[in-house]
Amino acid sequence: MEEQLLELFSFVTDARPDVRQLAANNIAGLSTTAEFFPFLKLNDSKVVRDLMRLVKGEPMAAHDALTTLINLCVDRDFVAVMDQEEFLFDLILLIVLPQNVLADLCCMLLNNLSESSSIAGKLVADIARAAATAARSPQSTTPTTTASTSTVPPATGTPQPAQQPHQTTHYLDNLLEVYIRGEAKKYNPSATYDFLGGVLANVAMTTAGAHWFRGRTNVDNTIRLSKMVVFCSHPNRIRRSAAFSTLKNVAFESDCHVTLLEDQELNLLPYVLLPLSGPEEYTDEEMDGMPDELQLLEDDKEREPDAKLRLMIVEILLLLTTTRRGREILRAKKVYPVVQKLHLQEKDDLVQDCIERLVQMLCGTEEGEEEEEVPEKGRRIELPASKKQKIAEDDFAIEEVVDSDDEEEDMQMGALI
C-alpha cells in the first residue's frame, strides 16, 4: 500500500492540471481518517508541503488541497509542517481577495492553525513589524498595506501571493476589516468569513493580541474590540461565539478592566448583559444605574439560547470581578439583578454554578468594609454555606478559550469532504 500511495502523492506535482486535481481529490478522501496519517508523514511530509503549494493554483485542485489541510489540523505534526510564515501569508492574501471562491476554506484552515500558540504568535508578531515600518517612514500618516481591505483590487487570474512584499502587510487589521465587511457575503459573494472570527479570538489569547484589540485600527481609527462586540447578539452562532471568545481572552488582562468597563466608545456592558437578559421587569431601584439598553426590554426578548455561550458570558463577568474597581463598577451598573433573574431561569448546572461564583464576588465583603456596606449582599440568590466567604483575588480559575467546540457549527471542521 505504501508504494501505491507514494505513487498517488507524486501526481500532486504533475505538469497536467487535471492530474493534480484528481490526485488532490483522492488524498482529500484519505485525510478523513487517521489511518492514513503515517503515510502522509512519509518523506518529511512531502505531500503535505506539495498540497500547501497547490492552494495557490487552480480552484478545483486548491479546494481539495485546502480540504485535506483542514482535516490534517487534528494532528500536531501536520500543524508544525504548516507553521511557516510564507504559507500563512499566502492564506491571508487569499482570504482578502474579494473574488476568491475559496476564501471560506482558507478561513477555516487559518482558524484551525491559529489554535497553535506558535502560529498565533506569528500573526501577532506582524504588529511589531508594522510599528517598526511606520517608525522608519515618518512622512506616512497611515501605514501601507499590501492588501488593505479598503483598497483591495479585484482578483484577476490566478493569485500569486508569494510575490507580494511581506514586511508591509498588516495581517490582523486586514483580517479584522474583512471579517466586518464580509458578513453575509457583502464583501465576497462566495464567502461569509464567519470562521475568520475564530482566528481573531485565538490571536486574543496572546498578550500582544489582547493588547492589540484594545487599540485602534489603522483603517478607521476605531477601537478594534468595538468591531467584535457588535456580534454578541448576531443570528449566526459562530460569530457570537467568536465575539464572546475574544472578549473572554481580552478580559484575562486585569489591567484593562477599568477601560473595558468605563470606555464610553466601547460601551461593553450592554453587549455582554443583553444576551443574558430576558423579558422580566426591573424595579426602579434595580434600574438605578443600569445601562439604558437593558431597561424596558420587549416582552418577547429571549436570552442566548446556547448554554455554552451563556457560560462564557458569565465567565467574562467573573473575570471582570478580579479587581476591586471592576467589582465596584459592576455593582454600580446593577449587574446583580440581571444575573439574579438569569439564575431563576437557568437550567444548565455549569451556568448556575458560575452565576453563584459571580454573585459571591459581587456580594462578598470587601477588605476593610462592613458586610452591610456591600450593595445587594445576599439578596435572593442563596449561596451554599461552603461558598459564603470573603473575596479573594484567586477565588476562581477560568481557562482561556480556543474558539472551537464540538457543535455542528464548530470552527474545527475535522473531516471535511
Structure characterization notes:
The chain is 52% helix and 0% strand. Helix 7 packs parallel to helix 10 and helix 8 packs parallel to helix 11. The radius of gyration is 24 Å and the shape is elongated. It starts with a helix and ends in a 54-residue tail after the last helix. The relative contact order is 0.09.
Task: Compose a concise summary of this entry.
This protein is an all-alpha fold. The chain has helices at residues 2-10, 17-30, 37-40, 42-54, 59-72, 76-82, 85-96, 103-113, 117-136, 171-181, 196-203, 207-214, 224-229, 237-251, 257-262, 268-273, 284-287, 307-319, 324-332, 335-345, 349-363.
**Rg over alpha carbons:** 24 Å
What kind of sheet is the major sheet? none
Q: Mean of residue pLDDT? A: 85
In sequence order, what are the helices and strands, one letter per element?
HHHHHHHHHHHHHHHHHHHHH
The percent of residues in helical segments reads 40-55%
Low-confidence stretches: 137-169, 372-380, 382-396, 406-417
Q: What separation lies between the terminal Cα atoms? A: 22 Å
Strand coverage percent: under 5%
Total number of β-strand segments? 0
The helix count comes to 21
What would the principal axes of the Cα set say about the shape? elongated
Structural class: mainly alpha
Task: Pick out its properties.
elongated, mainly alpha, single chain, disordered C terminus, 417 residues
Record the SSE blueprint.
Blueprint: H1 2-10, H2 17-30, H3 37-40, H4 42-54, H5 59-72, H6 76-82, H7 85-96, H8 103-113, H9 117-136, H10 171-181, H11 196-203, H12 207-214, H13 224-229, H14 237-251, H15 257-262, H16 268-273, H17 284-287, H18 307-319, H19 324-332, H20 335-345, H21 349-363
Helix pairs in contact: 2-5, 4-5, 5-8, 7-8, 7-10, 8-11, 11-14, 12-14, 14-18, 18-21, 20-21
